[in-house]
Amino acid sequence: MGFSFWHWAILFLLIGVPVFFAVRSAIKPSQNPASLVGFGGWLMLLAILQAFSPLRTLVSLGSSSEGYRQLMTLPNGTLAVYGEVALLLAFVVFQVVVLVTMLRRSYRFKQLFLYQWFVIPIVFILDTAWISAVLGIPVSQVLAGNTLIAAIVSFALTGIWVAYIYKSVRVRNTFTKTGASGQVVSAS
């Protein structure tokens, strides 16, 4: 099954249009860079997407429940399902940690978001290898449908956001809090 022209057009619109506007807004400098602080502009869109990312992972987990029931009837199926669920729940916990650091405006958010980007293919590879090894089936059977394409698109889109985070003046001005209380502690 290949991609038709319309699939490519939709993919171009989903990736190309945000990239175009991000590059265009990055080219024109702000009149007052110090005023770019807080959740606004592109950072607001990223905050919304980050807030929904754990929910999206949980919905994906829930929508796989019928497939999990079918897998449990196979030899080692229960082990395969429990391993995949544990891996995805660990990923959800990490996504929530990234979300909390973002909401607290911690300086660690940029680094954790970068790690989250790296974790996307790691989770995908570990999950694929786990299912293949435990069930004793070829990787090509595990990668049925658009599974690989969805993972690549997710990785690419998150990569665009990583580039934004490391280039944005608003992000640099917003994520500055350190310490447990969000303030820099000094001995006076």
UniProtKB/TrEMBL annotation:
Keywords: Membrane, Transmembrane, Transmembrane helix. Coiled coil: none annotated. The chain crosses the membrane at residues 6-27, 39-59, 79-100, 112-137, 143-166. The keyword Transmembrane helix applies. The keyword Transferase does not apply. This is Small-conductance mechanosensitive channel.
